[in-house]
From TrEMBL:
<keyword id="KW-0812">Transmembrane</keyword>
<feature type="region of interest" description="Disordered">
    <location>
        <begin position="1"/>
        <end position="48"/>
    </location>
</feature>
<feature type="transmembrane region" description="Helical">
    <location>
        <begin position="55"/>
        <end position="76"/>
    </location>
</feature>
<keyword id="KW-0472">Membrane</keyword>
<feature type="domain" description="Oxidoreductase molybdopterin-binding">
    <location>
        <begin position="110"/>
        <end position="256"/>
    </location>
</feature>
<dbReference type="InterPro" id="IPR036374">
    <property type="entry name" value="OxRdtase_Mopterin-bd_sf"/>
</dbReference>
<dbReference type="InterPro" id="IPR000572">
    <property type="entry name" value="OxRdtase_Mopterin-bd_dom"/>
</dbReference>
<dbReference type="Pfam" id="PF00174">
    <property type="entry name" value="Oxidored_molyb"/>
</dbReference>
<protein>
    <submittedName>
        <fullName>Molybdopterin-dependent oxidoreductase</fullName>
    </submittedName>
</protein>
<feature type="region of interest" description="Disordered">
    <location>
        <begin position="86"/>
        <end position="111"/>
    </location>
</feature>
<keyword id="KW-1133">Transmembrane helix</keyword>
Length: 273
């Protein structure tokens, strides 16, 4: 087997035309996205790693790359193959279809807000009986949890065993006393980035707002002071630089969801578009 531990995409062609229509992307291992999004927020650096399948395709000259420059360290082949054969407790494969495991969390870009831990505020509002605005100090007073989970970016990378510390979304939602039991949670981030998940997804114990990653303060580029982590959905559901949680009865599809990406975003069903 070739050694493809390091996949440097810098030498590959860049498509200036932006989005590839989903119908054409589906033929590839992962959808590729190079469009600098409005507001500068986004997947403008949303460069996929090459999956083994894509790599072999490139080697055979079968695929024209449209990624931006970037280097991803994927797991060495023996480790990758071993993990591919593993299953989660719920019986689903450890690596969802079309994903390649990587070694480090990349910075996928987006536009940060101005918040620091001293001036950060979290507004919990919408269809709730007790809307609240929390400071970072208030936030830290809620029950904190550590969760180790796998995360899956729609462009094809999977980071196994990432450890996050924060407060459960369910704890925060309950604090504001929702007026509805069925509905959606809109996660509101800096600069107008939003994403939404069903309240049932937000109720899962490892769906959290995180402020630490691998036991250290969350890096600015990964969403500090506070980001969402919604492990079982593609990672665009995990908004960085979170500023608000809005409970709604009618769904409000978010930034990527209104730009052609799946609203349900289940990695095991490959709901990419
Ligand atoms: N506010 C905000 N959150 C965001 C994004 C963004 O552009 N803006 N990108 C999403 C996407 S597409 C991914 S893959 C992850 C990337 O997180 P990372 O940069 O920490 O790897 O953040 C998600 N959250
Ligand atoms: Mo992503």
């Amino acid at each position: 087997m070739p050694d493809f531990r390091i996949m440097n995409r810098a030498t590959q062609a860049r498509d200036a035309t932006g989005h590839t229509p989903p119908s054409r992307q589906r033929r590839q291992a992962a959808p590729l996205d190079t469009q600098p999004a409005p507001q500068g927020d986004a997947m403008s650096r949303h460069t996929p790693p090459l999956t083994r399948r894509t790599f072999l395709g490139v080697a055979a000259g079968a695929i024209v790359s449209i990624g931006l420059p970037g280097t991803f360290m994927v797991l060495a082949d023996p480790a990758w193959s071993a993990t591919e054969k593993k299953f989660r407790k719920d019986g689903r494969p450890r690596i969802p279809p079309g994903q390649a495991p990587i070694e480090y969390i990349p910075d996928m870009g987006g536009t940060p807000g101005k918040a620091t831990t001293t001036n950060w505020q979290l507004r919990i509002h919408g269809e709730v009986n007790k809307p609240v605005t929390l400071s970072f100090q208030d936030f830290l007073e809620f029950e904190q949890v550590d969760t180790t989970c796998d995360i899956h970016c729609v462009t094809g990378w999977t980071l196994l065993d990432s450890t996050w510390t924060g407060v459960r979304l369910s704890t925060l939602v309950e604090h504001a006393q929702p007026a509805i039991s069925k509905g959606f949670l809109v996660i509101e981030a800096a600069r107008g980035y939003t994403t939404s998940i069903p309240l049932t997804e937000a109720a899962k114990p490892d769906a959290i707002l995180a402020y630490r990653l691998f036991g250290k303060p969350l890096p600015a580029e990964n969403g500090a002071p506070v980001r969402a982590v919604v492990p079982d959905r593609y990672f665009y559901k995990s908004a960085k630089w979170v500023e608000g949680l809005k409970i709604v009865s009618k769904d409000e599809p978010g930034f990527w969801e209104t730009r052609g990406y799946s609203n349900s975003a289940d990695p095991w069903k490959e709901e990419r578009h």
